[in-house]
Design a protein that fits this description.
Number of helices: 11
Radius of gyration: 22 Å
Oligomer: single chain
Distance between the termini: 21 Å
Number of domains: 2
Order of helices and strands: HEHEHEEHEHEEEHEHEEEEEEHEEHHH
Largest sheet: 6 strands, mixed
Helix content: 10-25%
Strand content: 15-25%
Strand order of the largest sheet: 6-7-8-9-10-11
Number of strands: 17
Length: 391
């Protein structure tokens, strides 16, 4: 759980004037890095010579203002048939060199694709050939549909070629995130941090023909009642918990380096105590499910459930921040309920630079940051913890 003066949530500290940055990122300042206006992933932070990026919200504003903009869809035709932006022009990346004479030099060109990589290549190609106003849509259609236009058709959730199905299931009433991961060939999956209402998970399993082979808790939750017991009763899938958990119900314990398999995929355990003693982070391919150890812009408070700021600092610096910068971060909380961003995904590289907790610069500063200015503990957190350990 995190900082918020007017809630019982787990997000950013809000005890100081938001217009003052008296506790700005000393580590970032020490290396001369400017964090102003840093774009959010799925893309790398800007650097000298980088392709200009247009954020999803900025593009939405440009489209609504009828700006003289050329949208360039650089995806293959098969992907375009799934979804595309209105008023665009289709020029697949492998044919863009043959269309240069038809493109404008005097107005912005914004290339886009699914996640952003092909669009950045297209924008770089155009810039190198005399199109100075060429740019790429940050995060592609995936991020645009998350942030700027929820009504935009989405790519199918299942990508058989990738052999990994990921469904993020927000619970807006409590600002929590549950995750379903599946192998689309074997039709086996696991659920991470389920909420008390298991109806959405049962519907997902039934509609997709999935067999649930594991229910995984990243830690003992203190802000909401967990749904592992009801989901186990409905599916008979085993419950997996940290070896440090004090849970009194039947479960399987795991430790550092253990793996939970589902089909041809696996969830690998990283022990990351700090927010709670039993906290773990779960790694699947290039993605980490960080629970409350690392949130977007902050990290989980350490004064609940036997937490320790020193242990959290060690977990962050020796486990989480050693992962590649492009590793995608999927937290357990989001939104105003926890004084956090509405975004649901980030990257390690982005959080290294922009996360308030990660830019304290030293263990001493981090411990002070984690020890001061927290709102009161949730009034019923003892009851919630007891319930989550008993059932």
């Amino acid at each position: 759980m995190t900082h918020r003066a007017d809630s019982e949530g787990v997000g950013l500290k809000s005890r100081r004037d938001p217009t003052l940055n008296t506790r700005g990122p000393p580590l970032a300042r020490s290396v001369g890095a400017s964090t102003e206006g840093l774009p959010h992933p799925f893309v790398r932070p800007p650097r000298s010579g980088a392709v200009p990026l247009v954020s999803p919200t900025d593009l939405r504003g440009l489209l609504e203002s009828a700006a003289p903009l050329l949208l360039l869809d650089v995806r293959p035709a098969a992907e375009r048939s799934l979804v595309h932006l209105p008023g665009d022009r289709h020029v697949p990346l492998d044919t863009i060199g043959t269309t240069l004479a038809t493109l404008p030099h005097d107005r912005p060109i914004v290339a886009y694709d699914h996640f952003g990589a092909q669009a950045r290549r297209a924008a770089r190609f155009l810039q190198d050939r005399g199109f100075p106003l060429a740019a790429a849509l940050e995060g592609g259609l995936e991020e645009y549909s998350r942030v700027a236009d929820a009504d935009l058709a989405r790519y199918p959730d299942e990508d058989p070629g990738a052999h990994l199905f990921l469904r993020q299931i927000p619970r807006p009433d409590v600002g929590c995130l549950t995750y379903f991961l599946g192998d689309p060939v074997a039709r086996e999956g696991v659920i991470i941090d389920p909420g008390r209402d298991i109806a959405p998970y049962r519907a997902l399993l039934s509609d997709g023909g999935w067999r649930l082979v594991g229910i995984v808790e990243t830690h003992t939750h203190a802000d909401h009642l967990a749904g592992h017991a009801a989901l186990h009763a409905a599916t008979d899938a085993p419950i997996h918990l940290s070896r440090r958990s004090e849970a009194r119900y039947p479960h399987r314990s795991f430790a550092e380096g253990d793996a939970i398999r589902f089909g041809g995929e696996e969830v690998v355990v990283l022990e990351t105590p700090g927010h709670t003693l039993d906290h773990v982070t779960l790694r699947v391919r290039d993605k980490v499910f960080t629970g409350d150890t690392l949130l977007l812009g902050s990290c989980g408070r350490t004064d609940l459930g036997g937490g320790s700021p020193e242990k959290l600092y060690e977990s962050l610096t020796t486990k989480i921040l050693t992962l590649p910068g492009e590793t995608e971060v999927y937290p357990a909380h989001y939104g105003a309920h926890h004084a956090l961003t509405e975004r649901h995904v980030s990257t390690i590289g982005f959080e290294r630079v922009r996360n308030e907790a990660l830019t304290q610069g030293s263990l001493e500063a981090f411990v002070r940051y984690m020890s001061e200015g927290w709102p009161p503990k949730p009034v019923d957190f003892d009851r919630i913890v007891r319930t989550n350990l008993d059932e």
